[in-house]
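PROTEIN DESIGN WORKSHEET
SECTION A - STRUCTURE
LENGTH: 222
TOKENS:
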């Protein structure tokens, strides 16, 4: 009986110690929180930098030989969309110090009409094994930044290294509107008759090029 009690007690000790070690090893994967998760430090120096990048993004969404896919109205529609934004805030899925995979940087976009777009995908990840990534909250008025708050990470390097972060916020915000209102940036999708090999005709949506005129008599063999 005593031997059984000793064995059980020993197993409990092993489980407790093992569990404690596993928690210590993996706590950064599942139980992470950091003071750097909240962009609450004002930085007025970034305001002008952000507005400069807004102008660049407007140019990048303007119909031109460099960007022939956009319709002529895309520039004005980009400007008008930016004027509807009240705040843009970046955040991570878990934490800026999290070591979990797919710890994506996401955007929360608040609009002047009170609507909010959350978990807007950026494609960028935040790696807790490195330094905490930069988070920002930008307050906007009439399409321009008027206040910028960060989590302080921009102070650890040259001002130039945050330009990509600024562009990311603006570009992905505009991309969100493109997914919601594609016809404001590109030619309307129209139906194209398609002839399949079995002889049956179906319709397929495709993007009309700027130089095209409607041609519905063309049949594509697939």
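SECTION B - SEQUENCE
RESIDUE ASSIGNMENT:
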């Amino acid at each position: 009986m005593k031997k059984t009690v000793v064995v059980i007690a020993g197993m409990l000790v092993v489980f407790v110690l093992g569990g404690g070690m596993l928690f210590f090893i993996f706590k950064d994967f599942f139980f992470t929180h950091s003071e750097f998760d909240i962009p609450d430090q004002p930085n007025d120096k970034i305001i002008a930098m952000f507005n400069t990048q807004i102008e660049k993004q407007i140019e990048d969404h303007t119909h031109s030989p460099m960007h022939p896919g956009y319709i002529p109205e895309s520039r004005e529609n980009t400007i008008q969309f930016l004027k509807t934004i009240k705040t843009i805030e970046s955040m991570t899925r878990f934490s800026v110090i999290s070591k979990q995979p797919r710890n994506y940087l996401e955007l929360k976009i608040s609009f002047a009409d009170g609507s909010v777009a959350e978990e807007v995908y950026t494609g960028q990840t935040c790696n807790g094994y490195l330094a905490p990534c930069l988070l920002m909250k930008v307050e906007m008025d009439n399409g321009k930044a008027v206040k910028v708050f960060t989590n302080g990470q921009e102070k650890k390097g040259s001002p130039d290294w945050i330009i990509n972060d600024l562009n990311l916020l603006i570009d992905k915000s505009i991309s969100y509107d493109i997914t919601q209102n594609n016809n404001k940036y590109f030619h309307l999708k129209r139906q194209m008759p398609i002839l399949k090999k079995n002889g049956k005709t179906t319709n397929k949506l495709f993007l009309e090029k700027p130089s095209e005129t409607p041609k519905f008599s063309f049949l594509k063999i697939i």
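SECTION C - NOTES
Residues 7 and 13 are 10 Å apart (CA to CA).
The beta strands are 41-42, 85-92, 104-111, 116-125, 136-141, 144-150, 189-195, 201-207, 220-221.
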